Q: What sequence folds into this?
């Protein structure tokens, strides 16, 4: 087992990475405030892992409430959030209840937002079961739901008490989901960790073949990068080059997800195409060259990810990007590549350059 620390003063917590973590009830119980636990999962993950967690906990005297939601990004909404609240209230869960998220990023965001809101905040544990959630969404405390006008526009910062990244869960992950997670793994190399990017270029085939040691190392390195960024700028308040750097490709990618309808493309697929757009815009600004863009595109392609966005039209992209959370004072802030391995936030881009990058990188 590998252990990392997210250093946030009194909100600090551990990320545990390794096999069979879901089969260790003590790893959950020692982070609970009482004997009440509510497990939030979905119809895909629950049949695989819910009993594996809940039965040993019940044997240890824990009162477990099971909440199973429909699967999919299109269910990351008010209706699913209220389903969680209904179940918590029906089972008379009190303020000492701990909420555990068992699933991918959608479940983590929903359960975390519910934990942040229920009785004005209850304890929260993340048990991510997808690569994307293990390397990104389970770490850092961002929770929330989607709105028809924009992704993740409603939510709260609510840090977990612990993250349990059980690498055994990746054995049941569909290939498409594994590739989706790779988009976020590659992101860390592009924005701040060149040696990790080079390692990914050397080991992508082993990662896609689910080599256990390679996956564990990639998860640990990704989480270490995110933990450092989050510790320095927990609530993304830095004007320049803080936590926002973790959003390379996300402004373009979120426009794809919203424009197509949530769930049509997986999050990592949209981020991959968005990352190529960000690289192309960086080239147009003179920061990187065509060979660098080809390098970005090539690694994403090797990860079996799309590198061209859907033809929504530049006008539609620009409209959707205008709802991005990084917009400040009406100005769009984009995360771009100053060089491979170094990202920056930029609000000085010209609309014509953004449109040209979109048009160049769409089907």
A:
């Amino acid at each position: 087992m590998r252990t990392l620390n997210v250093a946030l003063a009194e909100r600090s917590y551990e990320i545990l990475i390794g096999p069979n973590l879901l089969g260790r009830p003590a790893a959950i119980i020692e982070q609970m405030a009482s004997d009440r636990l509510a497990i939030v999962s979905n119809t895909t993950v629950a049949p695989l892992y819910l009993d594996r967690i809940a039965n040993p906990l019940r044997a240890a005297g824990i009162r477990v409430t099971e909440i199973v939601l429909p699967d999919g990004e299109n269910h990351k909404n008010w209706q699913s959030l209220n389903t969680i609240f209904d179940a918590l209230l029906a089972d008379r869960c009190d303020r000492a209840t701990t909420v555990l998220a068992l699933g991918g990023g959608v479940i983590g965001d929903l359960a975390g937002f519910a934990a942040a809101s229920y009785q004005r905040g209850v304890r929260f544990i993340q048990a991510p079961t997808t690569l994307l959630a293990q390397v990104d969404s389970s770490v850092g405390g961002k929770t929330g739901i989607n709105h028809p006008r924009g992704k993740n526009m409603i939510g709260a910062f609510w840090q977990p008490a612990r993250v349990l990244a059980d690498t055994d869960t990746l054995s049941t992950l569909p290939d498409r989901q594994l590739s989706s997670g790779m988009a976020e793994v590659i992101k860390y190399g592009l924005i701040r960790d060149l040696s990790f990017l080079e390692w990914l270029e050397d080991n992508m085939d082993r990662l896609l073949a689910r080599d256990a040691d390679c996956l564990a190392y990639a998860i640990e390195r990704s989480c270490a990068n995110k933990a450092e960024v989050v510790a320095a700028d927990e609530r993304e308040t830095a004007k320049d080059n803080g936590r926002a750097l973790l959003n390379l490709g996300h402004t373009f990618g979120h426009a794809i997800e919203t424009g197509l309808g949530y769930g049509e493309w997986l999050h990592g697929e949209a981020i991959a195409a968005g990352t190529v757009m960000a690289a192309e815009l960086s080239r147009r600004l003179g920061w990187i060259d065509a060979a660098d863009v080809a390098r970005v595109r090539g690694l994403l392609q090797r990860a079996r990810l799309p590198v061209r966005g859907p033809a929504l039209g530049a006008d539609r992209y620009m409209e959707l990007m205008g709802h991005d959370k990084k917009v400040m004072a009406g100005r769009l802030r984009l995360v771009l590549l100053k060089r491979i391995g170094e990202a920056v936030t930029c609000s000085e881009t010209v609309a014509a350059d953004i449109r040209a990058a979109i048009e160049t990188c769409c089907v």
